[in-house]
Amino acid sequence: MFKLSKRLFSTLKFKRGDFARLVDSDITHFESIVGKENVKTTELDLYNTDWMKSFKGNSTCVLLPQTAQQVSAILKHCFHRYLAVVPQSGNTGLVGASVPVFDEIILSTSKLRNNFNLDLSSGILECDSGFILEELESRLAPQGYIMPIDLGAKGSCLIGGNVATAAGGIRFIRYGSMHSNVLGLQVALADQNGTLLELGTGLRKDNSGLHSHHLFVGSEGQLGIITGIKMLVAPKPTSICSMWLGTDSFEKCQKILREAKTKLGEVLSAFEFLDAETLRCLKENENLDKPLETASKYNLLIETSGSNPVHDMEKVDGFLSYCLENELAKDGILAKNQTEASYLWKLRETATLALMHDGYVYKNDVSLPLKYYYELTDVVRERLGDKAIRVINYGHLGDGNAHLNITTKKFSQEVYDLLYPFIYKWVTEKGGSISAEHGIGQLKKPYIHLGKHEKELSLNKELKKIFDPKGILNPYKMIDL
Amino acid sequence: MFKLSKRLFSTLKFKRGDFARLVDSDITHFESIVGKENVKTTELDLYNTDWMKSFKGNSTCVLLPQTAQQVSAILKHCFHRYLAVVPQSGNTGLVGASVPVFDEIILSTSKLRNNFNLDLSSGILECDSGFILEELESRLAPQGYIMPIDLGAKGSCLIGGNVATAAGGIRFIRYGSMHSNVLGLQVALADQNGTLLELGTGLRKDNSGLHSHHLFVGSEGQLGIITGIKMLVAPKPTSICSMWLGTDSFEKCQKILREAKTKLGEVLSAFEFLDAETLRCLKENENLDKPLETASKYNLLIETSGSNPVHDMEKVDGFLSYCLENELAKDGILAKNQTEASYLWKLRETATLALMHDGYVYKNDVSLPLKYYYELTDVVRERLGDKAIRVINYGHLGDGNAHLNITTKKFSQEVYDLLYPFIYKWVTEKGGSISAEHGIGQLKKPYIHLGKHEKELSLNKELKKIFDPKGILNPYKMIDL
C-alpha cells in the first residue's frame, strides 16, 4: 500500500541524476572491501522501503560494512566511480530520507557495532554508530546511566541515525537536543580519499577549532557518514512520577508549563499534550478510556524523574495542589503505581496508531511559538469543515512541537490541496518550523525554502560541496547540488 | 607591561596581509552608516589592547553600529574595499582574538542592544548581541529566570562574544555548553551584500535544514558577526548549597564526582577543583586561609542549585555523609550561610589573581580525560623542578577542564621552552584539548594543528571561504586563508 507521498514526491518530482550505473566490477570491488557476505544484491525490499511504506527506491546493492575503514574505502570507490549512495541507519524515519529514490547504493551502518566504551566518572560514551538505541540503554542501565534520548523507534533506530537526524523524542525537555549531548563524531567523507575524520573530542569542553561536528547533527546524511560517536549520557533517575491534568483553556496550559518549570524545576522530564479529539479517537478506535472522568479540551501528561522519591513526590504534590487550587487545571490525577503510569503513557503513545483506523492520515510535525501552538489546529479544522474525519493535535508541548494530524477515509486530493502548502506557510509566517523533529528527506523537500533566506539555501549547497564534492551522498533530498 | 605572548606571537609570527589601507573616504562612508558619533579614530587604546594587556593592535578606526543593518552595511563596504575587520564584543578574552594584530578596523558590537524579548512560557530569550551578560542576568531575575552561563567576566563580556567563543564557565556542568542553549542566530556576513541571515529559529526543535548556526558557536568571529541571539534561559533556582571536600587521592576525586552525579543528581550545579598548591598560593599571596583545618592534596568545591531548600539540604547531607563515612573524603564542610558560601567561592575565584603576585604566570586552559586530569600537573612539576615558583592546578573538574598555571619571578625563556609545545603535545596525546574554553585567537594559533587531521584544517579554510569569501574577518587567527 504505497500512498500519496510516494506518488507525489518520489515518482513525479525527481529525475535521476547522471550518476554512474552499478556494474559487476563495482560489486567485486565492494566484496573485496567488506566480504561477500556483506554485499547484498537480492531480497532488498526491506532496505529499499521506508517503514511507513510511503517511499520505495530501486537499489540493487546493499553494503554492510563492519568498520569505519570499510566505510571509507566504499566512499572512496563511489567518489571515483561517481556512484550515488544513500546512508541507511535504522530506517525508521518518517520523511523518506533513508531509502533510495532511484538506484543509489544503500550503505547500511547496522553492522558498525564493535566499539563501546563508557567512562564512568565523566559519563561520556564512545561507540560505533550502528548500535540500536535500546541496546545502548540496556548496556548503560547496570552502570547507572541512561541515554539522553528516548523515542518510539528505540527498538530499531540506530544511534548514528539519531545523530544524523537530530532526533528529538520525549526526554528532550530534560536532556536537551543532540547538540547538548554530542561531543565528537567520527565521519567518513565521500571525497577522493574517503577521508575518515575525528571531529570534536570525547571532552565536555573543547574550543580548539571550529565546532564542525555540530554541522553533522541533523544533516540527514548529506555531508558524510557518521561512523563513531562520543556523547554525554545521563545519570539514571531512581524515581519517576507521571500525572495528568485537564483544562479548557490553552492559555492555562502555558501557565501550567511555567509553574511546572518553577515548582517541579530540575525534576521535570516530560510535558506532553493531547487535545480532546485525540482522546475521542483513542476511545473510538482503540477503546481506550480517558483517564479523568470529566472531559477537557486540553490534556497534559507531565512526568518527573529524580534521584529521591520522597522529594519528587512532595514537589509533585505541591505542583498539583497549586494547579487545582488556582484553577489552572479543572481536574487532575497522579499515577499511584507503575500500572497507572503506563496507562497514561499508553494513551500518548497509542495516538499515532489509533488514527490509522480512520483510513488515511495527513501527518504533520511542526514547531510553533507556544502562543500559536493550538491555533493552527482550530484554523485547519475550520478550513476543512466536514471534509475531514478528524483534525487532532498531540505532541511535545514543552518543546513547542505539535503533531497535527488529519484523517480522511481515503486519500483525498482536495483535502491535500487544502492542507499543503497552506499549513507550511502558516507555520512559517508564525515563526515556526515545518519540521520539528522528522526532518526534510523526500517528503518536505518541496517546502525547504519556506522561511529561509535564499542565501542560506545557497550556502547549504556550498557547505555540502566542501564535504561531498561530487554530491553523491543522499541525492534528491535536503540539499541537492 | 606587554608580555611574552605579544612579543612571541603578534610581532614575530604574523605578517600583514595585503588588505587595503583605510582612507578618508572610508571614514566618511562609515559615518554615513553609523553617524559621526559612532566612528572613533582617536583614543583607541582600550579597543586595541586586550584586557590582560598581552596583545596590542594598531587600528585607527573603531565602529560602533547600533543595528544589524548597520553591521551589514559596514561589512558590505569592507568586502568591496578589501578592508580587514576584527569583530570585538566585550574584549574580555584571554587569547588575543578580539583585538587587531595590525590595522584591522574594529567593529564593536557593544551598542547592539535594542531588542530584548523573553517568552515567559517557553523560557526563550531573543536579544541583540551587545548586551552585557550580567545585565541580561539582572533583567531575567525578576521574571524567574537566569542565564545558563556564568563566568568571571560577566560584568564586561557581551552575550554575542559568549556565543562566538562558546564560553564555558561555572554553570556548564548544569546547563551545558552554548550548543545546548543557542537556538538561532542572526549573523551578518562579510560578503558582497553584507548578507544578514537568520539561522535557526527561536524554537527548541527545528529540523527544517542544516543546523548551520551551530557553526558560529565558538567560531571566534571567523565566519560572520553575530548580531542577534535566540537562546534558552533557565528557571531561577530558589535554593543553593555550597560545600568543600578534601582528599589525598585523585582517584577518590573521580569517585566523589560519580557519587555527586548520583546522590545530588539533578541539583548538582558546580564541581570545582583546587589543589593544595593553589590553597598555599591563596594563603601566601592573598592571606586567605584554607577552609578545612586539615590540609588536603586535592580540594573540591561542590554546589547544588534546586527548587526546594529542604530537599536540597537532605540530598547534600546524604552525599556528604556518604563521602565521609566511606572515606572518599578525609574532611568536609557545608557552608551554613551565604557568608560561608561566599568565602568558599572567593577562594576559587581569587586563585587567578593570587598567582599574579608571584611575577610572571604561564596560564593554561586544557581539557583532559579525567584519568589524566591531574597527571599533567605532576609531570610539569617534575619537568621544571626548582625553575618555577609554583605549578598549580585548579579548574572545572566536573567538565574535565584544568587551569594549569606555572609562575616564575620574571618571564623565563628557558621555562617557556620547557613548557611549550610540551604541554600541548602531552595533552593532545592523551586525547585532551589544548584549549578547553579560552579558544585559539593569537595565543594558540601556532598549535592549532595539534591533534587535528590535516583535512579538518583544510576543510575549516573552505568553510571560512563560504561565509567570508575574501577572508577579511579576524585575520591571522583561528583560520587564516
Task: Name the chain pair with the biggest interface and residue counts per chain.
Answer: A-B, 93 and 94 residues
Q: Could you state the oligomeric state of the chains shown?
A: homodimer
Q: Kindly provide the radius of gyration of chain A, computed on alpha-carbon positions and rounded to a whole number of angstroms.
A: 23 Å
Number of domains of chain A: 4
Q: What's the N-to-C terminus distance of chain A?
A: 32 Å
Low-confidence stretches of chain A: 1-11
Please estimate the helix content of chain A: 25-40%
CATH top level class name of the largest domain in chain A: Alpha Beta
Q: Describe the largest sheet of chain A.
A: 8 strands, antiparallel
Number of strands of chain A: 19
CATH architectural designation of the largest domain in chain A: 2-Layer Sandwich
Beta-strand residue fraction of chain A: 15-25%
What is the average of the pLDDT values of chain A? Answer: 95
